[in-house]
Amino acid sequence: MSHQDFVSSEQSRRRYWAGSFAGWRRFIGAKPGPTYLSLAQLETKGRVRGMITQNVDRLHFKAGSKPIELHGTTHEIICLNCGELTDRHLFQNRVKKLNPEWARAVEALESGEAGSDANFGMRIRPDGDLDIHERFFRKENFYIPDCKKCNGILKPNVVFFGDNVPKPRVDLCMSLARSADALLVVGSSVMTMSALRLVRAAADMGAPIAILNIGPTRADDLAHLKISARSGEVLPQLLDMGSMSVPSS
Question: Does the predicted TM-score (pTM) go above 0.90?
Answer without folding.
Answer: no
